[in-house]
Amino acid sequence: MSACFTLRFKMIHRVLRCAFQLPGPSVIRLQPMCVAVGEQNPPCGTLETTKEYMFVERLIPPTRVPVPPRHDGPAPSGWAPPSDVPPSLPYMVRRSRMHNIPVYTDISHGNRRTTVLRRVEGDIWALDGAVKELLKRLTGTDRSTQVNEVTMSIRIKGHYDKEIKEWLMQKGF
Amino acid sequence: MLRISVMACSRGVAKRFMSSMSGESSLPSNLRLPSNLVDPSRTKRPPPPADSSLPIIRTCDSSVPAHLSPLLTWVESLAAQQGDPVGLAQLHPDVFAVPSRLDILHQVEVWQRSYKRISYANTKVRSEVRGGGRKPWRQKGSGRARVGSIRSPLWRGGGVSHGPRGPTSYYYMLPMKVRVMGLKVALSSKLAQDYLYVVESLDLPTPDPQYILDLLRQRHWGQSLLIVDACDELPENLLQATANLKTVNIIPAIGLNVHSMLKHEAVVLTLAAVRFLESKLLWHDERYTPLYPFKMPYSDLP
């Protein structure tokens, strides 16, 4: 009983001490023990400075994804920026926030492979026709696709992400 | 019997004969429109044409994608009841012209209603109801059904077997990007349905609430108004006028939410509010996933 009382008192004391001694984030204050309570001017021996805070500020990370530097042609990884003039087609495929082409592969039930083409704007059925034509040319068979007009995305049966990414990049999206 | 039916038929025939003789339309009374009906499509101002002579007061701060162009709306003033627009403002298409996702709007509205909900309904189970410890009569031989306690759910006064149990919380959080998309869809829908108005400043000539109501009626803005501003101090006249009005409400721009936008028919944004909303809502399209919560400091939060 008395042990838990002393423990609680110690905790409260520590919390109060921390609360009243908490300094502001940008001020480094050195207070020697000889400072009297209620004295306004700090005696010599105290140094208030804020310019060292730049060492903290440069460590704080940014939130926005940076714009990629300009390349002449494709980058060594194969990445290419979208063309400055958007292609004059009835549809548009925007880049993702990391400036990549929004084509993703998906597997469900272990064997059901699909490719998802997201971020479509404009006439999605025209894009669907174009994608079907491309896959007919590449594979020789009709690949079934599903157009979702609410989320503006196309789901294609089979893994064709590399081919569709190349095709979209070559179109200038 | 035959006489009554003959009389009823002849009465109906006479009514139809009279209505065809008179010049009025033969619509039933519940389909006839009143003559003083106001048609909003004919009374509201159409969106500004491309070659309008008014100056563009506000251009978009963030860059607009190359395949889209900024939207133009009228900038009005609340100084006179029947005033002409003062200028034009550009609105970013990624905030004010997103495709209308009604499913996201529904999700965000339902979330807003239920995440704060705690239902306090509670019923007692058979073990919690007072009494019922003793077996009322013996298991066999009495001729009655076998019974273990007087508080079984089958009995009158017994416990509830599958009732509400204690305070239940309906708290859940939708992903941040879904909530942001909900705001964008709500703003785009209001603009597309001509219920969004941009105003230069909220200075009223009088603190009279009737002034705002007359302004609403004259300009055919709608039944209810939501005023959104992004500054620290609101003008005194406006605060006094809207203090006792139920249908006209004023909120700061950080308080903008889908439920309020759906509840009020018309939404009025100041230019400062438009700037604030665009910067906050567009940041979510180009941000990283958070390393630590956004409540803590980052170098370039909007």
Sheet with most strands of chain A: 4 strands, antiparallel
How far the N terminus sits from the C terminus of chain A, by CA atoms, comes to 73 Å
Number of helices of chain A: 4
SS elements, strand count of chain B: 9
Placed side by side, the strands forming the largest sheet of chain B appear as 1-3-2-6-9-7-8
SS-based structural class of chain A?
A: alpha+beta
Average pLDDT, all residues of chain A? 84
Global Rg of chain A? 31 Å
Structural class of chain B: alpha/beta
Task: Sum up the structure in keywords.
A: 173 residues, four-stranded antiparallel β-sheet, 4 helices, 6 strands, 29% helix, 16% strand, B: 302 residues, alpha/beta, seven-stranded mixed β-sheet, two-stranded antiparallel sheet, flat
Short description:
The complex is a heterodimer of chains A (173) and B (302). Chain A is α+β, with helices and mostly antiparallel strands.
What does this structure look like?
The complex is a heterodimer of chains A (173) and B (302). Chain A is α+β, with helices and mostly antiparallel strands. Chain A has four helices and six strands, in the order H-H-E-E-E-E-H-E-E-H. Chain B has 302 residues and is an alpha/beta fold. Chain B is built from nine helices and nine strands. Chain B has helices at 2-21, 40-43, 93-96, 102-114, 176-192, 209-219, 236-243, 258-263, 271-283, and strands at residues 56-58, 71-76, 87-91, 118-119, 168-169, 196-199, 225-229, 248-252, 266-270. A seven-stranded mixed sheet of chain B has the order 1-3-2-6-9-7-8, sandwiched between helices. A two-stranded antiparallel ribbon of chain B has the order 4-5. In chain B, helix 4 packs across helix 5 and helix 6 (209-219) crosses helix 7 (236-243).
